[in-house]
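About this split. The held-out portion is used to measure sequence recovery: a designer receives only the structure tokens and must propose an amino acid at every position. Recovery is the fraction of positions where the proposal matches the reference. Here is one held-out target exactly as it appears in the evaluation file.
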């Protein structure tokens, strides 16, 4: 009886340890904050790249997604909640999200994506040596790209002379981009008129103002709202036969006339690679900020025909892709 009692006592003492040893390791959590209203090609590109880097959602990583849908005033609150939850990595997609992370998140790794100049807007002191808890993948390499888009619009449609420049003041590089556009406009003798879209509800007012000013071209300067809700801009330009150019290929895929810029999908894929490196032990301070090196010109010829625009064949030959 004494032996049985010993065995029972020993089992009671040892069993918690045995159970603990069998418990699976806690899965890391990645929180993605996006200006979009739901999943789409960019998130799919992120998920695919994360899997290729060895992290499969539900198997060895948890991914939470927070879609802001134009709620610019709530970024700080979301970031504060994530820091309190002590997630393992925060992905801040777009300038408002990245700046909120810079203000609020002090102890967690942050990977930003799709922002303009990270130094100018105060995210990092150096691209090569970020030095803090933030690093990531930038969007435009230099502000001159914004002026290049205006030049491309003028070359494709030579009659363009009054261009509505749709920007977003929550985008901290918006003003510097617009100054570059103004310099290009002066050289090309184009009148450029800025229109600020802060939230989706601004579109109706802005579109009415553009019509009153009799613009005959439209340039999407940038800003998360203008990118996420670009179908509203496309519908407006189609209804009023305005030639236009934007920053992302998705604009052309969805019926816009032209786009020039880096691939948002490639940016999100690189973002996922940085997330994986951090999960494996790398520090944001040691990961240099990446900049795009490839910029692509896309043209929707079907849209050009619908707008009554004959884009020169020599210009079409310069495009990376022409959608027929």
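Reference sequence for scoring:
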């Amino acid at each position: 009886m004494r032996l049985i009692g010993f065995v029972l006592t020993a089992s009671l003492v040892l069993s918690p340890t045995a159970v603990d040893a069998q418990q699976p390791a806690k899965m890391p959590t990645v929180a993605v904050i996006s200006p979009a209203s739901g999943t789409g090609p960019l998130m799919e590109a992120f998920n695919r790249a994360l899997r290729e880097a060895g992290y499969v959602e539900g198997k060895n990583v948890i991914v939470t997604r927070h879609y802001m849908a134009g709620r610019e005033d709530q970024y700080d609150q979301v970031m504060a909640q994530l820091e309190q939850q002590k997630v393992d990595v925060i992905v801040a997609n777009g300038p408002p999200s990245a700046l909120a992370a810079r203000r609020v998140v002090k102890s967690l790794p942050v990977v930003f994506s799709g922002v303009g100049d990270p130094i100018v807007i105060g995210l990092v002191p150096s691209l090569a040596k970020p030095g803090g808890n933030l690093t990531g993948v930038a969007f435009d390499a230099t502000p001159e790209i914004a002026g290049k888009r205006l030049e491309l619009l003028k070359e494709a449609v030579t009659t363009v002379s009054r261009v509505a420049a749709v920007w977003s003041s929550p985008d901290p590089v918006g003003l510097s981009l617009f100054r570059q556009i103004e310099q290009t406009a002066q050289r090309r003798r184009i009148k450029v008129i800025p229109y600020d879209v802060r939230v989706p509800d601004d579109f109706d007012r802005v579109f009415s103002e553009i019509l009153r000013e009799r613009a005959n071209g439209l340039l999407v300067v940038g800003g998360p709202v203008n990118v996420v809700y670009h179908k509203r801009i496309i519908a407006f330009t189609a209804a009023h036969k305005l030639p236009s150019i934007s920053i992302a290929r998705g604009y052309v895929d969805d019926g816009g006339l032209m786009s020039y810029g880096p691939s948002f999908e490639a940016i999100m894929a690189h973002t996922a690679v940085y997330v994986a490196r951090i999960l494996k032990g790398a520090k944001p301070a040691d990961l240099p900020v990446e900049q795009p090196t490839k910029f692509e010109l896309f043209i929707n010829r079907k849209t050009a025909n619908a707008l009554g625009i004959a884009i020169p064949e020599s210009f079409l030959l310069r495009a990376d892709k022409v959608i027929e």
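Annotator remark: Confidence is low (pLDDT under 50) at residues 1-23.
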